[in-house]
Amino acid sequence: MAFLELDNVTFAYGSGSSRYEVFQGADLRVQENEFVAVLGFSGSGKSTLISLLAGLEKPTLGGARLRGEPIAGPGPDKGVVFQNYSLLPWLTCVGNIDLAVRRVMPGLKGPERRAYVQTYLDLVSLTGAEEKKPQELSGGMRQRLSLARTLAMRPEVLLLDEPLSALDALTRAVLQDEIIRIWEEDRRTVVMITNDVDEAVLMADRIVPMTPGPSASLGDSFCVSLPRPRDRATLNFDPDFKRLRNDVTRAMLRMSSDAKELAPVLDYPLPDLEPVIPGRPLSVA
Ligand SMILES: Nc1ncnc2c1ncn2[C@@H]1O[C@H](COP(=O)(O)OP(=O)(O)OP(=O)(O)O)[C@@H](O)[C@H]1O
């Protein structure tokens, strides 16, 4: 039995003539403590997938289950980090995390709770920004705060809905490393949505491609057996990394409804790309 699963899920928004079927017969199985990246095209239903796993939406047909039990609704056992932070603007960094902690750990009081909140601020390198409000933070800091708030609730499952896509390449690389570091320190089950093949290969244990919508489904997964810790600079020259990146990219292109048009592209070898390494200048060939 999978820890977290979607079993033959069909899901549609609306009804009658305004019915829009996002998924048809979608299957996803995630093991406990596994880090799965779901790769999808724009508008294919990635956020809807997270909503189904979080219990924010219910399947029209089929089942969504956590530990074998139907997912009845949202709850602190399923932490979601959205692309757009969803922080409370009138609260400080401490206040945003504290509010979440009070909800899930009502027994934690006074200095003990403050120390607990600080642990998570430190974990995401927000030490010194305790009294700042979200609008005083950079995009990367906001996303860190959003991650810290979710982690502080100690959810069994972490659902990341393109958490890094709004960030510049350097901040994105720093946060990728931070998410991996946190996950390695304190393993839990992660489903991360991304549209970036390299990000998926760098971070995940397994990559699940999503077919384009409407009526999307989830394709056969790719196992990422590259040893951890994974270093971007070294990976870029690793033949296994390159092979996997190419295989995944080609599978995504083949799944695209434009596959015919893109067919010539599939014959070209994909170029090596210079990865962004935090703290290291980019070399110009
Ligand atoms: N509340 C809604 N009511 C009706 N249709 C919706 C609703 N939410 C999303 N959709 C439609 O469902 C489809 C999937 O949306 P979703 O946001 O899950 O895709 P996505 O892959 O996350 O998109 P993006 O890459 O742009 O973030 C889209 O065609 C969208 O228009």
From TrEMBL:
<dbReference type="InterPro" id="IPR003593">
    <property type="entry name" value="AAA+_ATPase"/>
</dbReference>
<protein>
    <submittedName>
        <fullName>Bicarbonate transport ATP-binding protein CmpD</fullName>
        <ecNumber>3.6.3.-</ecNumber>
    </submittedName>
</protein>
<feature type="domain" description="ABC transporter">
    <location>
        <begin position="4"/>
        <end position="237"/>
    </location>
</feature>
<keyword id="KW-0067">ATP-binding</keyword>
<dbReference type="Pfam" id="PF00005">
    <property type="entry name" value="ABC_tran"/>
</dbReference>
<dbReference type="InterPro" id="IPR003439">
    <property type="entry name" value="ABC_transporter-like_ATP-bd"/>
</dbReference>
<keyword id="KW-0813">Transport</keyword>
<dbReference type="InterPro" id="IPR017871">
    <property type="entry name" value="ABC_transporter-like_CS"/>
</dbReference>
<dbReference type="InterPro" id="IPR050166">
    <property type="entry name" value="ABC_transporter_ATP-bind"/>
</dbReference>
<dbReference type="GO" id="GO:0005524">
    <property type="term" value="F:ATP binding"/>
</dbReference>
<dbReference type="InterPro" id="IPR027417">
    <property type="entry name" value="P-loop_NTPase"/>
</dbReference>
<keyword id="KW-0547">Nucleotide-binding</keyword>
<dbReference type="GO" id="GO:0016887">
    <property type="term" value="F:ATP hydrolysis activity"/>
</dbReference>
<keyword id="KW-0378">Hydrolase</keyword>
